[in-house]
């Protein structure tokens, strides 16, 4: 009987200790939230803004471009050691579900949440959404909504084509990076010469840019990801009016669709 009591008490104490170690807190229950990037004052606002920026800058829009819009809710735990675990994604879009898992697995945490000076596990829930925009030549800027489109975008990056796309200025340059250099130069020039957009650029800003180059040289399905809605709309319009002199070609010399993807730091 004594041995049984001792064993029972030992198991009980061990289980209580284990439960105490593995308790997961909600964000409102901790003293300080995890830090993703350096914050002047760690807070819920800083954590949310850093998480939002991380998602926007790292989401693979090449895989998502075939959809008009998609939304997911991601729940995950940031452990006391700074690891991301117990990821759960709720969405009807399988592509976004896969991308959300990939994003969160790669998320780096500088320091975990704390409570009374001790690192603790914290659970967090965040939406992850994607919306494609359309530029209509007669109606201007509008937003898609609804179900995924039936057609997929090109799966070849412009630089991987047998013959990359080019502008007229590239014909005599002999520079392999001429097309990319000119695209970036035109984007920067557009942003710098637009007075309404210059006010949007207060601090260093990352802008992720994606567009497709059709076999006829037309630019379509432009996507811009950044903090400023105004830059997103204006730059998307600018990109869709850009004309490429020659589209990319395959090994048989046939014009093909390719995509351009680049992150520009202002």
Provide keyphrases for this structure:
disordered N terminus, alpha+beta, 12 strands, 2 domains, TolA/TonB C-terminal domain, five-stranded mixed beta sheet, 266 residues, three-stranded antiparallel beta sheet, elongated
How would you sum up this structure, described in words?
The chain has 266 residues and is an alpha+beta fold. It is built from seven helices and twelve strands. A hairpin with a 5-residue loop joins strand 10 and strand 11 (255-256). The chain is elongated, with a radius of gyration of 24 Å. The relative contact order is 0.14.
What topology emerges from the helices and strands here?
Blueprint (H helix, E strand, L loop, with lengths): L1 H20 L2 E3 L17 H15 L2 H4 L4 E10 L5 E7 L3 H13 L6 E3 L2 E14 L1 E4 L3 E4 L34 H16 L1 H4 L7 E8 L5 E7 L3 H12 L7 E2 L5 E2 L1 E8 L1
Parallel strand pairs: 1-5
Antiparallel strand pairs: 2-3, 2-5, 4-5, 6-7, 8-9, 8-12, 10-11
Unreliable sequence segments: 1-19, 134-151
CA-CA gap between termini? 74 Å
Task: Supply the number of structural domains.
Answer: 2
Q: Helix/strand-derived class?
A: alpha+beta
Protein name: TonB-like protein
Keywords: Signal
Organism: Gillisia mitskevichiae
Signal peptide: 1-20
